[in-house]
Amino acid sequence: MIEIKNLKKSFDELQVLKGIDLTVNNGEVLSVIGSSGSGKSTLLYCINALEPIDSGSILVDGIGVHDKSTDVNKLRQKIGMVFQQFNMFPHLTAQENVALAPRKVKKMSKKDAMDLAARQLEHVGLGQKLNSYPSALSGGQQQRVAIARALAMEPSYMLFDEVTSALDPELVGEVEDTMRMLAKEGMTMILVTHEINFARDVSDRIAFFHEGRMEEINSPDQLINHPTSEHTVKFLSNVR
Amino acid sequence: MAIDVFSELQPKDLLFLGEAALRTLEISLTAIGIGSAFGVVFGWMMSEGNRFVTFIINAILDIFRSVPLIIQLILFDSFISIAGYPLPAFVSGTIVLSVYTAALVANVARGGVEAVPASLRKASRSLGLSYWQDLRYIVWPVGLRAVFPSWIGVALSVVKDSALVSVIGYVELLKASQILITRTQDTFVILTIAGLFYFALSYPISKASDYIERRWNQ
Amino acid sequence: MDYEFLWRPVFQAFPQLLKASLVTIEVSIISMVIGLAAGLLLFFARSSGVWIARFFASVWIEVARNTPALFQLFFFKFGLGAIGIIIDSYITVVMALAFNTAGYMAETFRGGFKAIPGSQLNSARSLGMTFVQAQCYVVIPQVLRAVWHPMTNQFIWVMLLTSLGMLVGLRELSGETQFLYSKTFRAFEFFAATAIIYYCIAKLMLLLFRLIAWRLFRGQ
Lengths: 240, 218, 220
Fold this sequence. Notes:
B: mainly alpha
């Protein structure tokens, strides 16, 4: 379970998260929508301790992410994250990309890590691309490798930060299918996205962020068809 | 000029250093001018010519980038003296330094021409510009912008490398300092003056070039 | 032109020239290795928060890049000599070339680290790697690739610069050539042979670096 209580976060003068309260249960898929600058990506960075917070707390399985006593490197193994930019390590093959963290962080033997990597790549449909370098893969394939790379650490939670927004339109589908598959398998997921239709299909709940606040959170049907906040109404009419 | 053995540094010695500094400037600016002109032509030929032309020019210029300048100077100097046409040190120094500069500038110029997107050149030709007009009004300004900082880098390195012309008897700044050091033993003062001259010339220009590069890249 | 080229003395002295070439290669490698290490330290010092380290590194880098290598060599020779430190010409040349290389490589490293997007570090950290692990396995291999080409050029540049050794009495390839020609007065022939040897060394070094790069970076 991820519990966020009264989370506040500023960059210099600008407050980007103005007190967020949110709980994500195990097995749940939560989508976060909202215009750019609404703080939704920052929320994911804070959950993964890639950004410090000003006040409030984030508990993952009861452990405070930003507590001084917490070993963030250990905690991050529980929380996989995939980014908007293609972040494959360009000097390693697909299989080596996936095997690197299991080897170095979990101290697996090289053989075990490579086997695990092969299985994970198979899982996301890239069993044929084990020895390909990123330069030889499409953006969609690179993002699927990034998903496999995060899954190889056997996380309990997955965070997706606009993973399809840098992709060519024809490549969006394959990455979304991979995320659908994970959702079906029962992975707990938070995804920040611009694709409203995808969010409706895959999510248990959708949260709408506006200027650092969570304006509304509800089931996909309720939020999209019967929004209560005027900002949500305006946002939805703009994206359609 | 009479040189006393082991005497103090005198005012006229500063004049001697100043003249030598001017000679450094004179020979390096001449070489940069001549070398850049030839270098741009070679660079243009390499980027627009066929593979054979490119290969030949590149192979020849590569020799001047793969043999120490000091050896090139000695070799040229001894060649013209055995050929029976000894030249003043300034002239033979300028020739060698110019060829060396041309070899460096050719690569820079080639990069400049190739930095101009093919689509841009097609667009300019489609407007009815001739090949030479395209070269003059599109390739030159766009390419120059792309490689101007590299050209400044080459020019500054030629100023610094001109110190080597002393081996064929041209008394430029560093040679003059060495002469004075041997006589006066005022090592630090003289070396500092010489070093400051190069530094004061090179540092502001390289910083300005960095600044321009950053402005253009924004 | 009534000059008769005489190549026999050059052929006779060829073993000595080759032996001196080994000195040239040795001096290049030692200067380059020291210069690379010092250059990396200078880069870290210049980006550190300690102002005295930043100042020291900046002075070193700017002097190395904005004065002639020959000036730097004279400084190590005459400058240290003037305060009573007489060092062997071999060490003088190594010190000057390492000083010069460090300045240029510090700037090269700066560019190399800047070329790696911060998102690479983030994604490595998000997998649970420590800062040091992320640097070692993700960032530095990419920096190495980014600086490989300028580093190769610098290495060849250092090799060519070892010829300055002849001006401070080091018997590397140029110094040896000068010594041999002064006995026979066949300057052109000797220096022509030397020029060819330098060219070959430069091309061999380039080939070697390409081979290593091919092994290290293949597929990328």
